[in-house]
Design a protein that fits this description.
binds phenylalanine, 7-stranded mixed sheet, two-stranded antiparallel ribbon, alpha+beta, 328 residues
Length: 328
């Protein structure tokens, strides 16, 4: 190892006079230049160093390299005003601040629900907003003549009505169940569409969360427990009522009301997945049972944030939007 040479280079780095950016560039090339730079030449020499000295030699060279870099850095930070003169900018002008936005209230609720269900072992999947008739209706035991097709009238994307904007997230159940073998617990959240007049309580588009759980021996009490978990995590201690109801794809079915400002408010539908639906997706209903629930996010957010009109979510009024933080 050529100790003398290394000591000389070290001295040279230390005493190199840099006054201008030209000097700086010369300094950089002299020591760090790719081909003729002194540091690189020393590094290339490493192959001639006896193996027991290689490590220490490498360390010394790296030390030199650091010294060069430090000198460059120091010059730049002491001379940044001159840099600006060279490239014609004025660093004393205050910067333009771009405002950091806040999360949309519907997204806050969405992520809160995802979090809650991740904690109890659910997986999250995205579904399709453009669906076909089979996944949205027929496989869910809603045949063509069924009256609930009227309530869930939607936007059809072709004349024969075979492709449409999904009316509920229950179509995700079908897609998932067809491609997976139970047991599974799944959550999906997304936009759904209906042919509705816009008013303070309804819109042609809203968001739903859908959960479903299939395994051996899943029972209605598991469903009740899960609904209680969802509602109580969102609202704290509130009164909940299970009201018998009807959905073509669940049996028995229930709607859930919560006591809000002294009124029972309907907030979600649920039930045990109908064996006919399981058959449609090739799951043996003699072995497996399951439950499903669907809940509207807009409705939840109205209650959580004490809002009166769902149109406010989509007006993009910054005064409204910036009030929300992800803690509630
Ligand atoms: N899909 C139903 C709706 O949109 C809600 C629901 C989901 C009901 C799952 C039962 C089970 O109204």
């Amino acid at each position: 190892m050529d100790d003398n040479r290394i000591a000389l280079i070290k001295e040279e780095i230390k005493h190199y006079n840099i006054h201008t950016f030209n000097d700086l560039e010369k300094f950089r090339i002299k020591f760090l230049g790719r081909k003729q730079g002194l540091i690189n030449i020393l590094l290339k020499n490493i192959k001639n160093i006896p193996i027991e000295n290689k490590k220490i030699y490498g360390k010394i060279i790296n030390g030199l390299k650091k010294k060069v870099q430090e000198k460059i850095k120091n010059f730049c930070s002491n001379n940044y005003l001159n840099v600006s003169k060279m490239v014609d900018i004025d660093p004393t002008i205050p910067g333009k601040f771009s405002e950091i936005g806040s999360m949309h209230p519907l997204s806050i609720i969405k992520y809160k629900i995802i979090d809650m269900f991740m904690n109890i072992g659910y997986s999250y999947v995205d579904g399709l907003e453009i669906e076909d008739d089979w996944h949205n209706f027929t496989a869910l035991n809603i045949p063509v003549s069924h009256p609930s097709r009227d309530i869930q009238d939607t936007f059809f994307l072709c004349k024969d009505k075979s492709i449409l904007l999904r009316t509920h997230t229950s179509s995700v159940q079908i897609r998932y169940m067809k491609n997976h073998i139970p047991p599974f617990r799944v959550l999906s959240i997304g936009k759904v569409y209906r042919n509705e007049t816009i008013s303070s309580r309804s819109n042609f588009m809203f968001h739903q969360a859908e959960g479903f759980y299939i395994d051996k021996k899943v029972s209605f009490s598991d469903l009740k427990q899960t609904v209680h978990y969802l509602i109580h995590s969102l609202f704290g201690k509130v009164k909940i009522r299970f009201r018998p109801s009807y959905f073509p794809f669940t049996v028995p079915s229930a709607e859930i009301d919560i006591l809000y400002n002294n009124d029972w408010l309907e907030i979600m539908g649920c039930g045990m997945i109908d064996p006919i639906v399981l058959k449609n997706v090739d799951i043996n209903s003699e072995i497996y049972t399951g439950f499903a629930f669907g809940v509207g996010i807009e409705r939840l957010a109205l209650m959580i944030y004490n809002l009166k009109d769902i149109r406010i979510y989509f007006e993009n009024d910054i005064r409204f939007l910036k009030q929300f933080t992800s803690e509630f």
